[in-house]
Amino acid sequence: MNELARRPRTPRPTGWNNAPMKRPILAAVLVLVGLGLGATLLRDQVPVSGAQTGTATPTSPLAVEAGARLQNEQNTMDIVRRYEPGLVYISTEQQVMQPNPMGWMFGGENQTQVVQGVGSGFFVNEQGDILTNYHVVAGEGGQGPAATIRVRVMNREESVPARVIGLAPQYDLALIRASGLDRSLIKPIPLGDSDTLRAGQKAIAMGAPFGLDFSVTEGIVSSTARQIPIGFSGNGSGEGITQKAIQTDAAINPGNSGGPLLDSGGRVIGINTQILSPAGAATGVGQNAGVGFAIPINAAKTLLPRLQQANGGSVYAPRLGITAGLIVQGPGQAVPVGLSALTTEGKRELRLPETGLVVGQVGPDTPAARAGLRGGTAQAFPGGRVAVGGDVITAIDGQPVDALEDLQAALIDKQPGDSVTLRVVRGGQGRDVKVTLDDSSFR
């Protein structure tokens, strides 16, 4: 089974691929054999010049450099030696029913297939909590955890079972804990501060690319706030919520998902989550193209207390307590959209702004209700319906809003007690509304 089959869901824009691996048992052997052959061919085809094979004289600069490791090289080696033992290799297994391809002709029952997946994770505390991606431990179809989760630490042949402590599908994060693991093998990796990152800083990615566990690559931070869709949305569809991600050119491939991205001080600055792969759009299996993404570690640090208290359940991004009021009929389902989807003439007739999120309903006893937001009255039109006479949210904390995802993206790192300022239009008149989040926002 190819990499994209690990979670059959609404496809991302062409070329996007997450980086776990899921495949039948036989496919794993074929992939590893193919990788071995590929490496051999590449090695044999690298040209060697006379300068590469020549011997430097004892007094030449080359001889001096050969006798001492470069500072950057030594730094990388020190980080790998010290923190690689905190890396965890994760494997999952689940039985899925596959339709009998000849059943329509000859009859017969559906077939049961064992689907395996591999990914990465790392220890975050002395209690043995392991942080990874949600899609690494999610079952087939992305709904809930896989039937079997096992972890293996460095220099150990045997794996041990692990259980889910907490899931955060919208953030593509999960917290798991191994059972029966020798406590002396728990080696937490220190967590850094992703808010202080700058483009050009060194980045070291650890993980299990293509199932090659305990591998290391190095690059730089290419961007500190790349806006991309991450995780599973709160309405159960495959589209993730747009979030800020760290972009790096450190090689990230299928199987690296959930592994740590470290800085030159050995601190975790991000959790590797997905790649932009033109090759993946054509083959269905994403491969490194020098554009990989990691979830900022500060987002994970904010979520850790909630994940630790989830008792195996899920936590979600905070909500204001509203539903979208502009719905169009998509293929097989109704889809909430922003005002940019309507014609200019239609918006003018309904006295609606050019862009924004139409408020359909406001839940009772919610932050939105307490702030005085108001929904409209549903009015049908060919292919959908729109709520008129209520509020339209056009911005949150100064950032434009045209969809629920825009609202969620601004709320995703908030905590109880935090406030946001909404720009709201009602009846053609705009005003600012302050909304304070409370415990009800996080349930």
From TrEMBL:
Family annotation (InterPro entries): Chloro_Bact_Ser_Proteases, PDZ, PDZ_sf, Peptidase_S1_PA, Peptidase_S1C
GO-annotated biological processes: proteolysis
Keywords, alphabetical: Hydrolase, Oxidoreductase, Protease
SUPFAM superfamilies in the cross-refs: PDZ domain-like, Trypsin-like serine proteases
Domain annotation PDZ: ranges: 323-428
GO function terms (MF aspect): oxidoreductase activity; peptidase activity
One Pfam family in the UniProt entry: Trypsin_2
Domain of life: Bacteria
Protein name per the record: Serine protease HtrA
